[in-house]
């Protein structure tokens, strides 16, 4: 199954080599590559007969609310990237120490199947390997294989991720490092952590990052609006009209049936009632029209809890976007740090 926002993850990542690595003044080394992928309508989105662009269509706005502190890690900086496909990143530092940090990246992904997520993780690993093969990149790089890890978000549900550990030499210093990747509420969340080899083993670096992103996931809010919200229509049942036949479920108000769930719509005496809204949500779930992290537009406005920070992302489709549904929108930004 190919989902909205699915990745082709082509070999174009090799373009990374030509770009070279740009080393930040704070010691964090970065390089970027762009890999475009087509948007498509998935089986889970069959209720929407027309194909819409991932950004500016399927996803129009996202609310990211992240904790300012995760254990002893403190959020220090956030960055919005010029291209909306690249999303945002947040840097956490460890207490007062400035020799280690964790960067967390949030990329809009849409609906990806498990197979597509696995492919995304493989491509992220391969992109890191490319850094060790380019002039000015990592030296003497050694990388492990991808491993699965579980990061529960609470309330009994969980999010499976992939992680990898590596070692490399940069500017004469040997480092141990790790990368994690998760698919959570239509976003790819990537974590990157590097530390001096004398301070941590590779396994410890990977475990530290896995524990961090697990704790982060439990506190993180990712809420989006757009065409991802695909509600069942609610029709008014006029006074004196007989109750519809063949309802899948009904809800009563004041002891009288007031809302009826049909296979393709809700019929209600009061369309704005709690009962009608509840059956609408149930029907969306049965019809596979509920997407994780997608909300009604009016529900996205929420207070930001204490010790949390909010980032608002507003997406627009490119002005030159053609009607062709194979329009390439999604890109991959590879961080190296």
Automatic annotation (TrEMBL):
Name listed for the protein in its UniProt record: Uncharacterized protein
Cleaved signal peptide residues: 1-24
Record lineage: Bacteria, Pseudomonadati, Pseudomonadota, Gammaproteobacteria, Lysobacterales
Keywords of the record: Signal
Region (Disordered): 315-337
